[in-house]
Design brief:
By secondary structure, the chain is mostly helical. It contains 3 helices and no strands. Helix 1 (2-34) crosses helix 2 (36-82) and helix 2 crosses helix 3.
């Protein structure tokens, strides 16, 4: 077992080294073609796009929680409490209904 861990760590170290070398080569190519200031502008744009994607993913996750998961759990709980339904049987139906409503809303 320790041999496998050692082999994985060696592979991860060599992979990190290769990625670092590739990034260094791409940076040098970008500086050669565009110049230092424009390369920094490209990096700034890439960072902004990455943050935009991350924030959109968080917003989607929050909206799914707010508009699909919590209402589906509440409806399934009400159905299992007041009617003759099992919670685990009502949850997929409620989830599907609220997913369709969320899709229509967005």
């Amino acid at each position: 077992m320790p041999d496998i861990i050692e082999m994985v760590l060696k592979k991860a170290g060599s992979l990190a080294t290769e990625i670092g070398i590739n990034i260094s080569n791409y940076h040098q190519m970008l500086v050669d073609h565009l110049g230092e200031k424009l390369a920094m502008g490209v990096y700034l744009c890439l960072a902004i796009l990455l943050l935009l994607v991350v924030f959109k993913a968080f917003k989607l996750a929050f909206n799914l929680l707010r508009f699909v998961i919590i209402p589906a759990a509440v409806v399934a709980y009400i159905a299992s409490t007041f009617f003759a339904f099992n919670f685990l049987a009502a949850m997929p139906i409620a989830g599907a209904i609220f997913s369709v409503l969320f899709f229509i809303k967005s």
